[in-house]
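In this section we walk through a basic example: taking a raw amino acid sequence and producing a predicted 3D structure, encoded as discrete structure tokens. The instruction is simple. Fold the sequence below.
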Amino acid sequence: MQSHSAEALILDVFDLQDRDRIVTFLTREQGKVRGVAKDARRKYSRFAGHLQPLAKVQVSWFEKEGRDLVRISSVEPIRLAQHLLADLEGILLGSYLTEHLMAFAQENEPGDLYFRLLDSTVEALAAGVDRDLATRWFETWMLRLAGIFPVPRECPLCDRPLLREGAVLPASAEGLVCRDCGGEGRLPGSLEVSPEVLDALLRFAAAALPALAAEAPPPPVLRRIEELAGRVRRAFLQQELKSYDVMRRTLADG
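The resulting token sequence is shown next.
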């Protein structure tokens, strides 16, 4: 049996039987890890108040060869996420952020870049960065780290710079191409992407969230980035994230 200790971000927590909880957390060294927190549901559990989604913690666990779940021995809080989980919109957004990692991060593979992305997003939200801006920045970086949405500088088919005339996302959603290669956006199912949206995407790739917040793209540009990222994500996963559908329906009804 091997023992481990690492800084982690909690992604998901659910009940197991009467006393325990299953916890999924993200580490820099081992990526996504799933484990059992014994007696975590008891009133005076040593885990009480620490197993909060998006919390940054120091976690220790034991791993036994051949077992899918590790045994969590201790969790010490570094940064909780009350600022994000204090209202319904924040709770829905938190679920959306963590479901990305549940879908894209791998178990037993280094997860430093994913860790840094989620950690910096939560930090920026805690500092008051606009939630819409933070979410769009997070979405595009998540797709980039997954290797399915490179920085949109040149058309991959003809090498023409994209920024001057805009681009097109074909119905296949495999990547942005220039307007000529994309049929000027007239092909069924294609999505036109303006120079303003491309400029925002280039800024997202080059700057941290706090710097972007000083001059955020206008709401119409953020809406197009949301649509663009959603199409690329759905094409890759072959389905939509459940948390996204729940978030959009709930906030629309509200």
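Looking at the output, two observations stand out. The chain has eight helices and eight strands. The chain has a mean pLDDT of 92. In the next section we compare this with other chains.
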